[in-house]
Design goal:
The complex is a heterodimer of chains A (about 850) and B (about 100). Chain A has about 850 residues and is an alpha+beta fold. Helices cover about 60% and strands about 5% of the residues of chain A. Chain B is rod-shaped, with a radius of gyration of 20 Å. The mean pLDDT of chain B is about 90. The chains are: A alpha+beta (about 850), B mainly alpha (about 100). Chain A: Essential component of the vacuolar proton pump (V-ATPase), a multimeric enzyme that catalyzes the translocation of protons across the membranes. Required for assembly and activity of the V-ATPase.
Chain lengths: ~850, ~100
C-alpha cells in the first residue's frame, strides 16, 4: 500500500524476455497496468521497427471495424456491450482468424452496399420515369378534346397561363402565321427543384425565346442513391422546333444535370409504357427489400461482437507498439526492455511475468533486474475514486517532483473548507450537496451511461469534491446563520428589546447596546446570533469585521502549514542547510509579524467587552476593558511596522493592549527584518563555503597524487564553472527571498478574498430574496398563493443559475488560486513528470473517447 | 393511456423544482404560522395605515396567518406539479425503455 503523502518509490528495471514469451508477458503487464516502458530505440523511426508489419495489420483491422461500426450506426442497430467482461488479448495466431473474419464481413457488406446502390439508382430512374409519364399525361390530356394538330395543341398550351409566360404568348402569336412549317419536337426529363428558375432563364436566353417549357413538381421527395439524401425534383417538358434547337436544349439539360427520358408521343404508347414501368418498380421493390434484409442480418450478427473485436484489436496493437520499444539482443533470441516500476509492486509484476511465460509455454523464465540510475524517476501517486479528483487539482498546477510532499491529502479538507467560507449558505450548500450526493449515490449507473457532454464529465469527475463542498457550505452557512439570506433562530437569540413603548413608537431606528440588559451576556451557542438579520443599519459592518478577521486567521494558519510542509521536504531530502537558512527564517518572519497580528485579534476579542457584573458602569477601571477602548488591529499593526506610537485619542483608555507591548513589537519587527538577509545570503554562503572546502580537498588529493607520481588533472572541474554556479545560486535565492517576503504580505492580503466573496454571496442572495421571492409574499389575499407559486419558480431558477452555479464557479476558482499560489508556493516545486504505465484500461478508454 | 406533453428534460426539471418547492414552502408556511421574526420583513403591511404599536401588531398577525396559508397553497400547487411532472417523467422513461 503506497502512501498518499508522497509519491511512490520507483525503480528502473531491466527486463529480459524470451522472444516467444514476450507477447504473452507484455499482455499480462498490460492487464496489470503498473509498468512504464522506456523507448530503447528513440532514433529508429516508426517504419523501421521490428513489429511494424503487425502494427500495420492491426491498423487495417481497425479500419475495417470502423467501417462496420459506421454501417451499424447507420442502420441504428444497438451495439451490445457486456459490462465487466473484457476479452483478454488474443494469441498472435488468432490474429489471422480475426483478419479473415473482418475481411469476409467487409467484402460482404461492400458487395451488398454496391448492389443496393445499383438497385436504388435503377429504382430512382424508374420512379422518375413514372412521374414523367404521369405529369406529361396531364399536359397532353388538358386539351385532348381539341383537334390533334400540333398547332392547336401548342396554342392551347401557350394560352394556358398568359400572365406567367408573357414571352411565350408573343411566341405563340408569331407562330400562328408560320403554323404550316411548325413541326414540334419535345424532350421530357427530371431536374432538381431549386435549379428550375435558373434553368428556365437559361433556356429562354439561349434559345431566344423559341422554346416552350412546362414543369410540374413531384410531391414526394426522392432518395438520392449516392448520398441517400431526400431531394425534391420537378418534371419538365420542353417543346421546340428544329434540330439545332434540339441540340442546344439537350446541352442545356446536360449542363443543369437534368435527366432526360424517352417519352412516346402517342397516348397509347405512353399508357403501355407506364404499365411496364409500374410492374418493374414492383419487382425492384421486392428485390430491394431482400437486399436490405440481408444487409440487416449481416450487421446484426456483427453488432453482437463488434465491441469485443475492437477491444481485441486494440490490445494486440498496443502490445506490438510496446514490443517495438524493446531492444533485440545479439542472439535475436531475447528482447530487452527497460521500465519504471513502483518498488512495492515488484512481486506482482514478477507473478504476472511468470503467468505470461506459462501461457506461452516457454521454458526460460523472464529476468527482471533492478538498475541503478541517476535519472529522476516519474511521479506516481496511487489514487482511488475519491482522492483522484483532488490529486488532479494538484496535477493541474504541476506534477510533484519525485518524492516531494504531496499536498493532495490536505487539500481534501482545506479545499472544500475554503470554498465553503466563500459560499457559506445553508440553502445553497444543501442544493450543491444534494447534487453531489446524487452523483455519488448513482455512481455506477451514471458511469455505465457514458454521457459524453464535456460539462457533465467535469461535474461527474468532481462529484466527491462537489459533495464535500456542499456539506462544508452547509456548515459555514450555519455558522453565518444564512439560509437563502434568512437566519434560523435555533437556540433563542441572546438579545432582547429593552425599550419602552413610547420610545419604540417615536423612533425610526434604535440601537441595542451589548453593555446593557439588551444582551443576556451569554452568547448565542453556535454561530452568528439571528438578531443580526434584523439589524439593517449595521449588519454588514458587523459581518465585515468578523469575516475579514476570520479570513486573515485562516489564511495565516494555511500559510504557516505550508511553510511547515517545506520542513518535511527539507528533512526528507536531507537539505540540512535549507532548514537553518530557509525554513527557520521563513517561519520566524511569518510568525513574528502575521501570526502576532492574529494573536492581537484574539486578545482584542477576549479582553474588551461588557463586564457582566457592572453593566453600563462609568468606573474608569471598567471602561478600560469595555468595547469603547478596543483598539483597531490594523492601525496597531501598521504602527508596529513603522515603529510609531500614536497617542490614544480616548483619554479614558490605555495606550497599549498589554504591558510592554511596544517593546515586544519592536523586538519582533527587528528579528523579522533580520531574517531577510539570512534568507538572502545564507544559502549561497554555505554553498560557497562547501565548494571551497571541496576545492581545497580536491587540491590536496591532486597534489598528493602528483607527489605520488601519478598523472592528475581532469578530476577537478574548471573554477569558472563554480563562479557561474554561485551567481546563479545568488540570483535564485534573491528571487526566492523577494518572492517570499513580499509574498507573505500580499498573500495575507490575498486571503481577504474569502471575506469579499462571502460578502458578495450573502448580498446577492439577499437581493434575490428581496427582489423576487418577497414580491410573492406581499399579497393580502388568497390569490397570493398562486402568485407565490409562480414567483417561487423564478426565484429558484435565479438561485440555481446565479447563486449556486456562477457564484459556486467563482468561489471554486478563487479557492483553487488560494491553494495553488498562496499555499503551494510555500513548499511545492512541482517539477516532476507523470508516471504513465502501459495499461490496457487507459488505452481502451482513450480510444473509446477519441472515436466519439 | 395518458398523453405526453413534456420532454424528459422538462419533466425532470418540474420534478426537482416541485420537490424543492414543497419542502421549502411547507416549512416557510410553518415558520409564518409560528410567527418567525426573521420573516417579519416579508409581510404585507401597509406602513401608512399603522400608527400605533397595536395596529402594527394586529397587521403583522394577519399578515403572518395570511402568508402561512399562501405558502401552503403554493406548496399544494407544487404537489400537483409534482404529480403531473412525475407522470410525464414516468411516461418518458417507459417509452424510452420500450423503444
Amino acid at each position: 500500500m503506497g502512501s498518499l503523502f508522497r509519491s511512490e518509490e520507483m525503480t528502473l528495471c531491466q527486463l529480459f524476455l524470451q522472444s516467444e514469451a514476450a507477447y504473452a508477458c507484455v499482455s499480462e503487464l498490460g492487464e496489470l497496468g503498473l509498468v512504464q516502458f522506456r523507448d530503447l530505440n528513440p532514433d529508429v523511426n516508426a517504419f523501421q521497427r521490428k513489429f511494424v508489419n503487425e502494427v500495420r495489420r492491426c491498423d487495417e483491422m481497425e479500419r475495417k471495424l470502423r467501417y462496420l461500426e459506421k454501417e451499424i450506426r447507420r442502420d441504428g442497430i444497438p451495439m451490445l456491450e457486456i459490462p465487466g467482461e473484457c476479452p483478454e488479448a488474443p494469441q498472435p495466431r488468432e490474429m489471422i482468424d480475426l483478419e479473415a473474419t473482418f475481411e469476409k464481413l467487409e467484402n460482404e457488406l461492400r458487395e451488398v452496399n454496391q448492389n443496393a446502390e445499383a438497385l436504388k439508382r435503377n429504382f430512382l430512374e424508374l420512379t422518375e420515369l413514372k412521374h414523367i409519364l404521369r405529369k406529361t399525361q396531364v399536359f397532353f390530356d388538358e386539351h385532348e378534346g381539341g383537334a390533334n394538330t400540333t398547332e392547336s395543341m401548342t396554342r392551347a398550351l401557350i394560352s394556358d397561363d398568359p400572365n406567367r409566360h408573357i414571352g411565350h404568348v408573343q411566341l405563340g402569336l408569331r407562330d400562328k402565321q408560320e403554323s404550316l412549317e411548325f413541326l414540334p419536337c419535345f424532350v421530357a426529363g427530371v431536374i432538381l427543384r431549386e435549379r428550375i428558375p435558373a434553368f428556365e432563364r437559361m433556356l429562354w436566353r439561349a434559345c431566344r425565346g423559341n422554346v416552350f417549357l412546362r414543369q410540374a413538381e413531384i410531391d414526394t421527395p426522392l432518395e438520392d442513391p449516392s448520398s441517400s439524401d431526400q431531394v425534391f425534383k420537378s418534371v419538365f417538358i420542353i417543346f421546340f422546333q428544329g434540330d439545332q434547337l434540339k441540340t442546344r436544349v439537350k446541352k442545356i439539360c446536360e449542363g443543369f444535370r437534368a435527366t432526360l427520358y424517352p417519352c412516346p408521343e402517342a397516348p397509347a404508347d405512353r399508357r403501355e409504357m407506364a404499365m411496364g414501368v409500374m410492374t418493374r418498380i414492383e419487382d425492384l421493390n421486392t428485390v430491394l427489400g431482400q437486399t436490405q434484409d440481408h444487409r440487416h442480418r449481416v450487421l446484426v450478427a456483427a453488432a453482437k461482437n463488434i465491441k469485443n473485436w475492437f477491444v481485441k484489436v486494440r490490445k494486440i496493437k498496443a502490445i506490438y507498439h510496446t514490443l517495438n520499444l524493446f531492444n533485440l539482443d545479439v542472439t535475436q533470441k531475447c528482447l530487452i526492455a527497460e521500465c519504471w516500476v513502483p518498488a512495492l509492486d515488484l512481486e506482482t509484476i514478477q507473478l504476472a511475468l511468470r503467468r505470461g511465460t506459462e501461457r506461452s509455454g516457454s521454458s526460460v523464465p523472464p529476468i527482471l533486474n533492478r538498475m541503478e540510475t541517476l535519472e529522476d524517476p516519474p511521479t506516481y501517486n496511487r489514487t482511488n475514486k475519491f482522492t483522484f479528483a483532488f490529486q488532479n487539482l494538484i496535477y493541474a498546477y504541476g506534477v510533484a517532483t519525485y518524492r516531494e510532499v504531496n499536498p493532495a491529502p490536505y487539500t481534501i479538507i482545506t479545499f472544500p473548507f475554503l470554498f465553503a467560507v466563500m459560499f457559506g449558505d445553508l440553502g445553497h450548500g444543501a442544493l450543491m450537496a444534494a447534487f453531489g450526493f446524487w452523483m455519488c449515490y448513482k455512481e455506477k449507473p451514471l458511469q455505465a451511461k457514458k454521457i459524453d457532454s464535456e460539462i457533465w464529465t467535469i461535474f461527474f469527475g468532481g462529484r466527491y469534491i462537489i459533495l464535500l463542498m456542499g456539506l462544508f457550505s452547509m456548515y459555514t452557512g450555519l455558522i453565518y446563520n444564512d439560509i437563502f439570506s434568512k437566519s434560523l433562530n435555533i437556540f433563542g437569540s441572546a438579545w432582547r428589546n429593552n425599550y419602552n413603548q413610547s420610545t419604540l413608537e417615536s423612533n425610526k431606528m434604535l440601537q441595542l447596546n451589548p453593555d446593557s440588559d439588551a444582551y443576556t451576556q451569554t452568547p448565542y451557542p453556535f454561530g452568528i446570533d439571528p438578531v443580526w438579520q434584523l439589524a439593517e443599519a449595521n449588519k454588514i459592518i458587523f459581518m465585515n469585521a468578523y469575516k475579514m478577521k476570520i479570513s486573515i486567521i485562516i489564511g495565516v494558519f494555511h500559510m504557516l502549514f505550508g511553510v511547515c510542509l517545506s520542513l518535511w521536504n527539507h528533512l526528507y531530502f536531507k537539505r540540512r542547510i535549507s532548514i537553518y537558512v530557509e525554513f527557520i527564517p521563513q517561519i520566524l518572519f511569518l510568525v513574528l509579524l502575521f501570526f502576532y497580528m492574529v494573536l492581537l485579534m484574539f486578545i482584542k476579542w477576549t479582553s474588551y467587552g461588557p463586564n457582566a457584573a457592572h453593566l453600563g458602569s462609568d468606573d474608569p477601571e471598567i471602561v478600560k476593558t469595555s468595547a469603547y477602548c478596543a483598539p483597531s488591529i490594523l492601525i496597531t499593526f501598521i504602527n508596529m511596522m513603522l515603529f510609531k506610537t500614536d497617542p490614544n485619542t480616548r483619554p479614558q483608555c490605555n495606550d497599549n493592549m498589554y504591558a510592554g507591548q511596544i517593546g515586544l513589537q519592536k523586538f519582533f519587527v527587528i528579528v523579522a527584518l533580520m531574517c531577510v538577509p539570512v534568507m538572502l545570503f545564507g544559502k549561497p554562503y554555505f554553498i560557497m563555503k562547501e565548494q571551497k572546502e571541496r576545492a581545497r580537498q580536491g587540491h590536496q588529493t591532486i597534489e598528493g597524487a602528483a607527489e605520488n607520481g601519478a598523472a592528475g588533472g581532469a578530476a577537478l572541474p574548471p573554477p569558472q564553472h563554480h563562479d557561474e554556479d554561485i551567481t546563479e545560486v545568488f540570483i535564485h535565492q534573491a528571487i526566492h527571498t523577494i518572492e517570499y517576503v513580499l509574498g507573505s504580505i500580499s498573500h495575507t492580503a490575498s486571503y481577504l478574498r474569502l471575506w469579499a466573496l462571502s460578502l458578495a454571496h450573502a448580498q446577492l442572495a439577499e437581493v434575490a430574496w428581496n427582489m423576487l421571492l418577497r414580491k410573492g409574499l406581499m399579497s393580502r389575499d388568497f390569490e397570493g398563493g398562486i402568485f407565490l407559486y409562480v414567483v417561487f419558480a423564478g426565484w429558484a431558477a435565479i438561485s440555481v443559475s446565479i447563486l449556486v452555479l456562477m457564484e459556486g464557479l467563482s468561489a471554486f476558482l478563487h479557492t483553487l488560486r488560494l491553494h495553488w499560489v498562496e499555499f503551494q508556493s510555500k513548499f511545492y516545486s512541482g517539477e516532476g513528470y507523470l508516471f504513465q504505465p502501459f495499461s490496457f484500461e487507459v488505452i481502451l478508454d482513450s480510444a473509446g473517447q477519441g472515436e466519439e | 393511456m395518458g398523453m405526453k406533453f413534456c420532454g424528459p428534460k422538462l419533466s425532470l426539471c418540474g420534478l426537482v423544482l416541485s420537490v424543492w418547492g414543497i419542502i421549502q414552502l411547507t416549512l416557510m408556511g410553518v415558520f409564518y404560522y409560528i410567527r418567525a421574526v426573521a420573516l417579519l420583513e416579508d409581510l404585507p403591511i401597509d406602513e401608512k395605515s399603522t400608527h400605533t404599536i397595536e395596529d402594527f401588531i394586529s397587521a403583522a398577525e394577519n399578515g403572518y396567518t395570511q402568508n402561512a396559508y399562501n405558502c401552503w397553497i403554493a406548496a399544494l400547487l407544487y404537489v400537483i406539479t409534482l404529480v403531473v411532472s412525475g407522470h410525464q417523467f414516468w411516461m418518458n422513461n417507459r417509452s424510452s425503455v420500450s423503444m
